[in-house]
Amino acid sequence: MLPKVCILRTDGTNCDAETFYAFNKAGGKSELVHINQLRQGKVKLAAYHILVIPGGFSYGDDISAGKILAAEMTSFLKEQLAEFWRAKKPILGICNGFQVLVRTGLLPTGKLGSISAALTANKSGRFECRWIKLKIEKNNCIFTQGLDNKVIYLPVAHGEGNFYTDSATLNNIEANGQVTFRYVDKNDQPTKTYPDNPNGSLNAIAGLSDPSGYILGLMPHPERFTEIFHEPNWRRNNLLFCQPGRLTYNSMEPQGLAIFRNAIQYVKNS
Amino acid sequence: MALYEVRVINHPWMPDPKGQDVLYEIQRALGLKNITRVTTTKVYRLEGISEEEAHLLAQNLLAEDIYQSYRLNEPVITKATAVVEVAYKPGVMNPETSSLMKAARDLGINNLSACDSSWEYGFFGPGVTTANINLILKRLLVNETVEQVVTSRPPAAGRQTSGEKQTTSRSTGGKPVLSEACPTSNRLETSPAKPLTLVIHGLVQETKIIPIRVMNDRELMALSQDKLFLDREEMQRIKNYFTSLGRDPTDCEVETIAQTWSEHCVHKTFKAKLLVNGREKTPLLKRLQQATQNINHPLVRSAFVDNSGVFEFYQGWAICGKVETHNAPSAIEPYGGAMTGSGGVFRDIMGTGQGAKVIASTDIFCFAPPNYPVEKIPDGCLHPHYLLRRVVAGVRDYGNRMGIPTNNGSVHFHPDFRAKPTVIVGAYGILPLERCLKGRPRPGDLAMVIGGRTGRDGIHGATFSSGEMTARTIEVNASAVQIGHPIEEKRVADAILAASEQGLIRALTDCGAGGFSSALGEMGTETGVKVYLDRAPLKYPGLAPWEIWVSESQERMVLAVDPAKAGRVLAICQALNVEATIMGEFTGDSRLLVSYQGEVVCSLDMDFLHHGWPQRAKQVAWQAPVFAEPDLPSSANWEEIYRQVMAHGNVCSKEPIVRMYDHGVQGTCALPPFGGVNGDAPNDAVILTPFLDQPYAVIISHGLNPVLNKINPYYGSLWAIAEAAANAIAVGANPRELMLIDNFIWPVPEENFLGAIDLAVDACVDFARATGMPFISGKDSLSSTYRGKDNLVIHIPPVLCVSAFGRLPDVTKTVSADFKKEHSQVVLVGCRNPMEMAGSVYYDLIGYIGNNLPKIDLAVLPKVYQAVYQAIAEGKVLACHDISEGGLAAALAEMCFGGNLGAVINIPAEEKAENFLFNETAGCFLIELDPKINPANLFAGVPHKVIGHTVSQREITAYRQKKLLFALPLAPLKEAWQRPMKEVFGGSITA
Predict the structure, then answer these.
(1) Which of A142, A260, B338, B948 could crosslink B391 through cysteines, CB 3.0-4.6 Å?
(2) CA of B811: which chain A residue's CA is closest?
(3) Closest alpha carbon to B356 in B424, B433, B301, B426
(4) Interchain contact B991–A (C-beta under 8 A)
(5) Is A90 in contact with A143 (CB distance < 8 Å)?
């Protein structure tokens, strides 16, 4: 049986289709689930192996990005989420999903309802859509196993991705090795400099996991790099062989895919 | 009822990007360097709850103490020299309020009866004077059509707080609140006192009878002016109709007719009889339609009949495209205008066939230069710097939030857009072939409205956009603008797709210009329709029936649904938080019958409504103007002129705009707007792969060149069309599978300008015939003339914007514009006469327009297109870029920027170097070829020439007759090319 992936939707979710595709391509069985279905009890989170909160502008990002959905989840899905987490099932938040996870408290501490960090407005004051380089850190995050120290290329597209927390929490995050992705410069070094770091995040944090490693949130969009021709310069980087009738990749897998495949593999192994 | 104010502010050590952005504009756009800091606070007003609940909401929803703090009923910006709050006017729907209400309920607070949010600004520095604050408010922060300065605080509950002291001083009537430190105490112009409640009350106005039968011509025209925008003959038709019925019309009936007959909805000019030198010529629209019929393109599924044009894609699917203008609303409220423009064109796609998914958005703007002198901006008009930034923000916020990638567009600058800018928004969609045509409503089908509620906003949009803009426009027609709500539209889009997939929709259309009147009136043309207006969900009470009927409130769609399926549609809507209401039913009596609480407010014969307007007959003449010709100096300073060309508004990089648009959402982008080594070199078109697992591609591009139409509208228009197609072909599009969309944005078509349209349409027809590319959708907006005080008249340079879109079976057979490697050949392909320099950027820089404009040869062009397509399809082209504004020189530089490579070129001895470099003939391409490929074989039979080769050294070097003309490093060229838009959009783009 294929691992079942719950792609959570609500008003303003807009990266659901490509996230759906990414998990299917990685070997899962994606389903789109509207939060109304969960609230009304028509669908139970327990029926799924992986929960994903995809990108978008949930409820218009009114008040602050992801805030309204976070409040809704904290109010109505508290037990289901706790049960999901106790069952060691992976939870992934991409972009707006990351913002939601931070605003529920699930990241960085894993404690629902206790907010200890924020994704605030980009330092540039603007929405930023561009491809950036990320370094994957070695830690216990189940989404990135085997990818330690790899540098990958993914797009960001957000206006509120500037990770901020107090120094105690930051020290904890670093000491626990919870940082999973950092923005890096052309020498693959973590950077605070725009545009390599597109939002001014503390410690160049682009994505992090909770202490257990089952919950991951990141601002960049791995679901937007699941085919080679998504890469903006695939034509010059010689990433693709053209063969009549089919596409053949030149030894490189689209760099967003591994994150989804790791989650699927984890479910299969557990 | 108690009204609480919660103010939320970032901790002092946190950055305040919004404040920094405002400060940047104050210092840069207004030149007020003595204002040194701006801080911002979000203000929430909450009504109906207890103080305890207000705290609860503040703590759990409005503020996060990790980086913010809040105060209840107290100011938080206390040290600023001046503090000003800017809020939406009552009745302008703040999209945030519905989220606030929802979240409060989710948190268990059920008695929040109303709420609002706004921003407060604190200003610091010696430059904070009343005069300067007034300037900032007027020019940057407050758009008086939708916003106001809030000063006197509403009597809030819990006044006995420590904020009391400030509260008192704040409520003494000052407009911006200037503290004692402020040197002057002059007040801002009047702004309304804050109401005691946020709940909008209103009594329903009664339906009025208009005594049209007794009106003389003068009275008829007085009725028309500023409201109906109909001409004398049309007003007389209406009078005669009601005279024959023996009764006077209701206000609702008159409004219905005015909306239906508006230029915006019925395109009277494009349907008019044209008399050219006494000879009758086929109406413009008919000529375009006939050209498309004559081509009889096998892929076309619908042209000019549906909300967008539809052609066959692959695997049983179709692609549709629509391009719209939203000039008039954007001119008076650019943010809201651009938003509702985007929202409207997306709904056109959503309402195509039996429902389509929007997959792309495009944006094309024409403004006066952003540094245009403030004092030369006519009365009643906004400065282009503000317009550009706000229009971009509107397009950004609507597209990004709906999750529609905005990935093709351009900005053109010309001083004559200073009164009436041109704002063009396009959208493209995908839908199954089997549902790509609309069904016809049948008698008994239900008329359902889904989505947003109806308010007073947008009333008279259709008639307004058909009228000329005057200095009075902003005052009179403020109600024509509103703020869009993209999340509402996203919900509606999701609901339509779900209902469409299950085959539940017979027909649908968007509630655009003219609102219900247009949507239901049009859908019921053949059957007739009965509408119960009192069923319409309203944003607030107090609307007269006619207002409900013609309101253009956004985010609404009208569906015709078989009654047996209505329950399922309602269930889908409910599951997705979309409000759905059955407004009436389609009948069989060919009448438009509208009632309100049992009273008939409109009863019109469909035939009169849709066919009763008088066809116009118009005299057409076009007089060729004569412009001064320059004595061409031989350029001494090549570096200077090259940099000036690159920095020209119509050439310079628009990357800062593109970066604010999410062009990758939906995961379909296979050629981004900017690419190359550093991601900062432009591509000619966007390529999308709408099926995520398959290589089938959609290509979208466009072209326009307004200034050429001033010289000669035939060749100017030909240029625009050739450019649109060339942009698509440059990335690999197949010219045999390209579709076109026309948008005419013109000054009011008096004789000469109508003559210009006539020639432009001829160009469209000739191009279609020569290339086999059909026009399948189009729109005209013929009101871009400004009339101000002292007989000031400003006509925009006529705009024909042509969009091209097509399909390709294999995305891997496409190319980008960046040079790929050194030692490649650089080949110029295409037919041009370098002497034809009129209208070029080069001429503009030396202060001329000229007369000898590029005259594209339609005998050669199709062969060039085919040869370029073939070469790319065979995988022989490394890079390709089409030549447009800035000429070969600009195209070459952009290819170098993309590859981080240089080039060495040889200018032929027989050509003048300036012409060779800066001629702008469209339909010509620069192509990078591997040295092993022989261009003579690849481009046999079409004009081509190897002009040079790529080199690793980052310089552009030109020789003429073996003599070095110049060797220019790339860096300063690039700096010049990037600087203008960086300056407009903020300094930190490269920081």
Answers:
(1) B338
(2) A229
(3) B433
(4) yes
(5) yes
Contact A57 B486 (CB under 8 A): yes
Query: What was the pLDDT predicted at B635?
Result: 66
ipTM, interface predicted TM-score of the complex: 0.96
Across B951-967, average pLDDT: 96
Distance, CA of A27 to CA of B740 (rounded, Å): 41
Calculate mean pLDDT across residues B565-575: 98
Position B440, amino acid:
R
Q: What is the pLDDT of residues A181-196, one digit of tens each?
A: 999 999 999 999 999 9
> Rounded CA gap, B950 and B953, in Å?
9
Domain count of the fold of chain A:
1
What is the domain range of residue A140? 4-269
pTM of the model: 0.94
For residues A46-52, average pLDDT: 98
Cross-strand pairs, B966: B958
Q: Do A125 and B400 touch (CB under 8 A)?
A: no
pLDDT band at B152 (very low <50, low <70, confident <90, very high): low
Question: Could you please report the per-residue DSSP string of A140-187?
Answer: S-TTSTT-TT-EEEEEEEES--EEEE-HHHHHHHHHTT-EEEEEB-TT
Average pLDDT of span B881-901: 98
Interchain proximity A235–B814, CB inside 8 Å:
yes
Q: Which two tokens stand for residue B93?
A: 């729907």
Closest residue in B to A162 (Cα) is: B15
Q: What is the pLDDT of residues B386-430, one digit of tens each?
A: 999 999 999 999 999 999 999 999 999 999 999 999 999 999 999
- The per-residue pLDDT for range B73-106, each reduced to its tens digit, is 999 998 999 999 999 887 778 889 999 999 999 9
Quick one: B804 exposed, middle or buried, by C-beta within 10 A (0-12, 13-18, 19+)? buried
Contact B802, B712 (CB under 8 A): no
Q: What is the pLDDT of residue B352?
A: 97
- A62 and B100 in contact by Cβ < 8 A? yes
Q: How far is A229 from chain B (nearest CA, A)?
A: 5
Q: Residue A130 has what pLDDT?
A: 96
Q: Return d(Cα B918, Cα B632) in angstroms, integer.
A: 13
**Is pLDDT at B492 greater than 60 in this prediction?**
yes
Q: Answer yes or no: CATH 2.30.110.10 is held by domain B3-178.
A: no
| Cβ contact A94:A207 at 8 Å | no
Please report, rounded to a whole number, the percentage of residues in chain A having pLDDT higher than 70.
95
- Res B991 pLDDT > 60: no
**Full DSSP string of B770-833:** HH-PPEEEEEEE---EEE-GGG-EEEPPPEEEEEEEEEES-TTS---SS--STT-EEEEES---
- β-pair type (B357-367, B406-413): parallel
Contact B394, B338 (CB under 8 A): yes
Nearest Cα residue to B870 out of B805, B935, B823: B935
Q: Who contacts A152 (Cβ-Cβ below 8 Å, separation ≥6)?
A: A133, A134, A136, A255, A256
Domain limits, chain B: 3-178
Contacts of A76 in chain B (CB under 8 A): 106
Tell me the average pLDDT of chain B: 90
3-state secondary structure of A195: coil
Q: How confident is the model at residue B333 (pLDDT cuts 50, 70, 90)?
A: confident
Strand segments (E) across B500-542 = 507-510, 529-532
Q: Which of B64, B396, B667 sits opposite A226 (nearest CB)?
A: B667
CA nearest neighbour of B774 among B300, B392, B106: B300
Whether residue A247 and residue B665 make contact (CB cut-off 8 A), yes or no, is: no
Q: How many angstroms separate the CA of residue B808 from the nearest CA in chain A? A: 13
How far is Cα B62 from Cα B60, in angstroms, rounded to an integer? 6
Q: Which residues of A touch B669 (CB under 8 A)?
A: 224, 230
Interface with B, mutate which of A99, A103, A227 (most B CBs under 10 A): A227
